[in-house]
Amino acid sequence: MRFDADPLFTISHISQRSGVAASALRFYESRGLIESVRSGPGHRRYRRSTLRRIAFIVFAQRIGYSLEEIAAQLALLPTDHVPTGSDWQRLSREWKARVEQRIAELQRLNISLDECIGCGCLSVKRCKLTNPEDRSGRAGPGARRWMGDPPPKG
Q1: How far apart are CA 87 and CA 149, in angstroms?
Q2: Is 18 exposed, middle or buried (0-12, 13-18, 19+ CB in 10 A)?
Q3: To which H or E segment does residue 8 belong?
Q4: What ranges make up the beta strands (E) of 26-76?
Q5: CA dihedral defined by 84, 63, 35, 30, rounded to 10 degrees?
Q6: b (16+ CB within 10 A) / e for 26-59
Q7: Contact call for residues 44 and 4 (beta carbons, < 8 A)
Q8: Which of 65, 112, 122, 135 could pair covalently with 69 via S-S, beta carbons 3.0-4.6 A apart?
Q9: Does the model's pTM come out above 0.90?
Q10: What digits encode the pLDDT tens for the residues 86-131?
Q11: Distance CA 116, CA 29 (A)
C-alpha cells in the first residue's frame, strides 16, 4: 500500500482507536516515533498506518524496550510504503529473546518474594541468615538476587 492510499485521521480518532492519550501521541511525535501531516489550519492528521506503529510502541514498552530502542527499531521500517507483515516480523524477531528474559526475571522475582532478594529488602527477619553483613551488596547496587545473582557465600 502506498502512502497516498493511506487515509488521514485526526489525533482524537487515532487516540480513540489506539487507546493512547493524545498527549502521548504528541510526545511520540516529538521523539520521532510517529509523524503527522498538518492540515490547512495546522491540525495534526495521522495516517491510518500510524496505528500499527503505535501498537508496536505500546507492546515494545510492555516488553521493556526503552523509547530509544524503539526508535532505533522503527527507523528500520521502510519510508516509501506502509510496512508489510514481513517488515514487522523482521523487527519483532528479537522480541522473543526479550520476552524470555523478562519471564526469567519475573520467575526469579516470584520465587524471591518469599525469600531474600538481597537486598530490597522484603525479608528483614531473615537477612541475618541469608545475607549477613549485606554480602549481596558487594556485588553491586540493586536487588542482586532478583537480578540473577546467586546467594552470597559465607
Answers
A1: 37
A2: buried
A3: strand 8-10
A4: 37-38, 44-47
A5: -160
A6: eebbeeebbebeeeeeeebbbbbbbbbbbebbee
A7: no
A8: 65
A9: no
A10: 888 888 788 888 889 889 888 877 776 666 555 555 555 556 666 6
A11: 42
35 vs 28: CA distance, rounded Å: 8
Identify the structural domains of the chain with CATH numbers, from first to last.
Answer: 3-93 (1.10.1660.10), 95-154 (no CATH)
Alpha carbon distance 34, 64 (integer Å): 19
Q: Is 71 exposed, middle or buried (0-12, 13-18, 19+ CB in 10 A)?
A: middle
Largest CA distance in the chain: 72
pLDDT tens sequence across 27-40: 999 999 998 988 77
Geometric angle at alpha carbon 102, from 77 and 112, rounded to 5°: 165
Q: What is the pLDDT of residue 141?
A: 76
One-letter amino acid at 5 equals A
